[in-house]
Amino acid sequence: MIKNLKLAASRPDLRRSVVDVNGIKVGQEFVVIAGPCSVETEMQTIKTAIAVKKAGAKMLRGGAFKPRTSPYAFQGLGLKGLKILDKAKKETGLPIVTEVVDTRDVSWVGEYADVLQIGARNMQNFSLLREVGKSGKPIFLKRGMYSTLEEWLNCAEYILAEGNPNVILCERGIRTFETYTRNTLDLSMIPAVHTESHLPVFVDPSHGTGILSMIEPMSLAACIAGADGLEIEVHIDPASALSDKEQQMPIPLFEALMEKLRRTQAFMEELNAQAQAFTPEDKAQEAQTAEETASKEARGAKSPHSGKAFMDAVD
Ligand code: PEP
Ligand code: MN
User: DSSP secondary-structure letter at 184?
Assistant: First the structure.
């Protein structure tokens, strides 16, 4: 149990929070947020927005302020980028998820964003957390690349403590000794967050792996592990992207992933419904049937499930 969490800790009745984003119930329905790493042009953003919406994404992501390793790399279009996102929203109806990196920008970025993203590099920027807390807007809080679950949940606590209950967490991979992948995507954080907190948790397999071919298997795994949603980078022409070109999904791959996600969700719903139907009375009934079959077998009667195969079936 993580101590000292007052507002982010799981509730005694285990009720989970639902964050409402323009009618989309995050935490209740599985939500895919998709779009380019960076907003580059109006054409690129709007075409991507239309395509991801058609494929089933419920929100559009896109960076107008890009925290880059090099100060000489593309830093984002700023206000111009936000205006492009606004056009994409008008065109598609998709709510906008975009990163804010500076306390001074929170209020005016909030005029364009439906969800304010706090990036991994700013997870522990406490003044920024307080400021977005005051904004009252839904906040997408990414896990810092060197952060423990306890540190991450304490950052959510900063936002909640300002009176803003609308926090969505996002696992995006951490730095480990493994350098094959861009980061080590820690899917174990999905059940960990659901145990320790009532907040919804998403997974970002794009930054989490940095490898295009790994995005689909990690997305499906996250869905099976109980993630509340995914944030995925998609670009109409990844080869020409101004940032993260290796990991952005081209549209056809994203469409195929969304179809597999729909089937995975349906499978999980069925599995969970079956598990719920499998009540203690059913188990007692099954144990009784097994006992009767065993005693018949001992008396020489043949069972359709006789022998070890039957034992395997009830194991
Ligand atoms: C992003 O989602 O645009 C981003 C920069 O991700 P992260 O903060 O997780 O690196
Ligand atoms: Mn990116």
Answer: B
Query: 123-153, pLDDT tens digit by residue?
Result: 999 999 999 999 999 999 999 999 999 999 9
pTM: 0.90
* Cβ count near 171 (within 10 Å): 27
The string of pLDDT tens digits covering residues 169-225 is: 999 999 999 999 999 999 999 999 999 999 999 999 999 999 999 999 999 999 999
Q: Are 200 and 19 in contact (CB under 8 A)?
A: yes
Our mutation pick for probing the ligand 1 site, out of 69, 171, 207, counting the most ligand atoms within 8 A of Cβ, is: 207
Contact 39/77 with Cβ under 8 angstroms?
Answer: yes
Q: What tokens does 217 get?
A: 């298997």
Residue 37 Cβ < 6 Å to ligand 1: yes
Instruction: Return the amino acid letter for 46.
Output: I
CA dihedral 39, 45, 48, 52 (to 10 degrees): 80
C-alpha to C-alpha distances, 164 to 157, 208, 249, nearest whole angstrom: 10, 27, 33
- What's the CA gap between 95 and 311, in Å, rounded? 52
